Model the fold of this input.
Amino acid sequence: MPHLHVALVTERPEASLIPVLQLRPQEVELVPYRSTQLDVERLAILLRHELPAGTDIHVHADMPSSAPQRTGEYFDALAEALQRRQFDEPNLSITYDPGNCDIPTALLLQQAMRRCDADWLYVDERANALYRMASGSPSSNPEVLAIEPVLDIDRYLQANGRKRVRALSDGTEWQRTCERRRSLTHYLAQHADRLAGLLGELNDIVHGPGGVLERRAQHAPVLRQGASRQRLHRPPQFPATDALTKLHEAGLLRWTSAQPLEVEVATLEGALYLGGSWLAEYAWHSAREAGLSQVCCGTHILDLDVDRNDQPVIPACLAVENNRLLFLESLIARPGPQACLQQGLQRLHELLNHSAGLAATRLLLACGEFDRAQRRLTELQRAQGPRVEVVESGDLKHLPALLAHWKEHGRWPGS
Done:
């Protein structure tokens, strides 16, 4: 039986994809609602690529939202056109998905779609259920279908006007290197609360003024000439000495207890690792340990709505599980409680800017001396608007379990 599906495309265009990609109708009618024509046209392009050749996809004119009467007339015209289709194809079944539109709009759509015996679809992402309520059925009980995992990272991003160009974790050599130093990475994360000062100072040695790395416009960072030898501010104590020894043995820096203040970072690999990639790698390991179905690290994300992307967004990790997106960034703050809080708040705002428009779980891994301040970063971020989950140094060891909870329940613990 041929199937036609009507979708109100809201500010969450990826949600409109779920019933379409799961039910795979032969015809799709996309109605802009709290979305632009460009957003809906982009969704249509994506569907033409994902659905079988010959699928008819039509984009309607903008839906009036200023007056209920005009909205009702818009839906009546749509239903009348669908009725004519049913006259030509008596076996044509019709479904409609109002998305997360407001109640008056949903009722006006329902009233109009009764004229063509269309079934109402309701996507409950939290319950992972797709409800189909038949228009002409004497029973009030809906048909319940389990939502299939139809969204991957690329589909999710493209539906929202972004494109994943490449990711560090796509390369087999990166994965081998990451696995080779897995135990070291886990050691740093497991002891991040006690190593926060050292890790912050090493990060500053790499990225700070006169640091080991320099970044030239539109180019990857390179080693700064003559900057490989650096000095720590104070003699390290245990467990910092243990961490420095492990990093020395891994060939990522040179350090000896005989000259405890002297540190040499002579390789680009070592500089990148000490400058923050260890925390991104730990996030990648943790996501894989939690069994997330798709994870990528160091992804370059382009904005399709701008002509140039001189500075693409590069989050530490992206993951998708059961059609939900996890957007993860990391921070290794300079030593000192006040510096940590200042950098932490700046990073929170950057994360919100980078993930703006995405209905994602936003996660910040923050390594720093936050616990030594009067107010922790997690306490400050609650007043910052859209929710960002923060995992600070002392909780990094629990990241695999936290991600496993997110996978199973669809929400962050405590949210």
Notes: Residues 268-289 form the longest helix (22 residues). DSSP finds 13 helices and 19 strands in the chain. The CA atoms of residues 326 and 361 lie 5 Å apart.
